[in-house]
Amino acid sequence: xxxxxxxxxxxxxxxxxxxxxxxxxxxxxxxxxxxxxxxxxxxxxxxxxxxxxxxxxxxxxxxxxxxxxxxxxxxxxxxxxxxxxxxxxxxxxxxxxxxxxxxxxxxxxxxxxxxxx
Length: 117
Description:
Layout lengths: L2 H13 L6 H14 L3 H11 L11 H4 L8 H17 L28
Helix pairs in contact: 1-3, 2-3
């Protein structure tokens, strides 16, 4: 964690007359994880807000930053189209199937043709 963020957060806690305890830090880690943020980013947002406490549920989208797994509109539209196709056909869309998968079509109990050579 960056020293500046830590110093700012501890100064904020002192100003709010709220001690920095192991429990407070553990809860901050838990809330940061719940929000999908690093502890440093979570404490940075906390400092920017200037509040005594912060919970993951209170974060606004812009405070969370860009989502690592955010999809573009085109990607979401394509996924929705594949889901509709799968729902109508009852099969997995060909683009979702693993590439390079080997399908064994030899009936059970039949001798392997390669073993005869």
